[in-house]
User: Fold this.
Amino acid sequence: MQAKECPYFWHQQTIEKMPQLQELQDLAQQVRRDIVRMVHNVNSGHPGGSLGCTEFFVALFNEILELKPGFDMDGLNEDMFFLSNGHISPVYYSILARKGYFPVEELNTFRLINSRLQGHPATHEGLPGIRIASGSLGQGMSVAIGASLAKKLNKDPHLIFSLHGDGELQEGQNWEAIMYAAGNKVDNLIATVDRNGQQIDGATETVLPMGDIGAKFKSFGWDVMGIEDGNDLEQVIQGLREAKSRTGKGKPVCIIMKTVMGHGVDFMMHTHAWHGKAPNDEQLEVALAQNPETLGDY
Amino acid sequence: MKKYVDQGKKDTRSGFGAGMTELGRTNPRVVALCADLVASLKIQTFIDEHPERFFQVGIAEANMMGIGAGLTIGGYIPFTSTFANFSTGRVYDQIRQSIAYSGKNVKICASHAGVTLGEDGATHQILEDLGLMKMLPGMTVINPCDFNQTKAATIAIAEHHGPVYLRFGRPVVANFTPVDQQFEIGKAVLLSEGTDVTIVATGHLVWQSLLAAENLESQGISAEVINIHTIKPLDEEALLKSVKKTGCVVTAEEHNFLGGLGESVARTLTTRHPAPQAFVATRDTFGESGTPEQLMNKYGLNNKAIEEAVLDVLKKKA
Assistant:
């Protein structure tokens, strides 16, 4: 990333021992396998951003979100997550399946006709875990704000989490939402920006320079923090916990999370080339060899 | 023909405001959003009585639609409010993905529709909104005709689960439907029986149709007048029942003839009971500045235009 960023990166004091870390790393590795296998199976989909956000999803759904058993649309008395950059559906579907929202075998239907696993997340077939359609970019933060306001009206102290691509912030609706959330003290919302610095046509700083995204959020009135390495599971967990501790203080919380697109599959890393491209048979073998099976393939 | 009395001219947007006042008192799940047009939308009473259930989003309609979608997740019934132009074309993709495709229970309430917005001119006078909204799968589209009916429709859509587009206007017009009527979504209202021609009208053109029918009666032409307040789902059975009797139809709407009520009627008749049809609507044009009355006259959206259309379609009936 060429843009100079302001010093909002948060540094943890002490890392507590996480005995469950190996378990979570095994899950992350299995999710990576799911992602490349799903995308390879239909020769379409978005592996790059999915791989880059794997640690975030594993951390969020295992260590952070307070969830009820089962799924209902209103999500009362539990935390809720909204994915704004819907094209990274492979990682979302994999974690939902691995957390028991639907059978892992169903991952095999990704992007196929008559599937609940649409190319981009959708609600109309009732896939458990999905509360809003996303794919057309820039709409998720507004929805997350609405859900946060509903939580407040319902006097439900649980939190709303959302994830956004960095390139996605080029959509103007985000800035309407960012302005609204700060101006109206939506302080039960944690919006994470996946700062991988890549978008379809190239580096974000080449396609449309975005500068210091954290500073922009901050100037709009958000509490901004950073996760230096969004592909380090421990850092992500600690960062999300820190973000949680900052809620309820009059400001929405933004996490600028630096990740590497394609993380975990060496030939997909550090390039925008694998944003929306599927590996061929040989490339799949290489990718899978770099991520041996841990919890069983679907 | 059955005669209707104007109980005193009022604007349909005030009917919306009155409906919101009542909903505020009767349904705690109803919340309101507005994009910097509170006075124009007549919702101040709702806001005064329930400030915690009102969200001022500023001049940011895209964000308003998304927040509305989000508020449904948690069980609320959001009513978004702004001008029709900013409720539809400006935010079409937000409505399409976050509301319609996601099946969210948002009520998109739109004032100042059509040319009767008047002096502000074409930038604000949307004549394409019915078409835009009726094309969205699952969207209910309603265009009531007067104050009383707009109030009743506002109250009724809160009880309907699913996205709704409710269209109303700025000018004061005849208020002639019953006070405290029951509003049934998707159910056409037969206003006056006739045998020679069916006039199917929506919104401000319903009163104009009654005026036209009265004048036609004096010329010996018996017109049946139907108020189609719900464009989608269209009450096809009421339409077919009437046209099977009269043999021809005139559609009347304050909207482009491309994509509006007229085309929905034409599709129904073509597939189920072909019959001659004439369109009272704007002709693929933008509006302009002027008084509502001047504009309705210039763009052929009044009782005279309806009468001419009736004479025209009767010739084709043969």
Q: What stands out?
A: Chain A has one domain: 21-289. The interface with chain B takes residues 73-76, 80, 122-124, 131-136, 139-151, 153-154, 156, 172-173, 176-177, 179-180, 184 of chain A (CB under 8 Å). The CA atoms of residues 164 and 209 of chain A lie 17 Å apart. Residues 21-42 of chain A form the longest helix (22 residues).
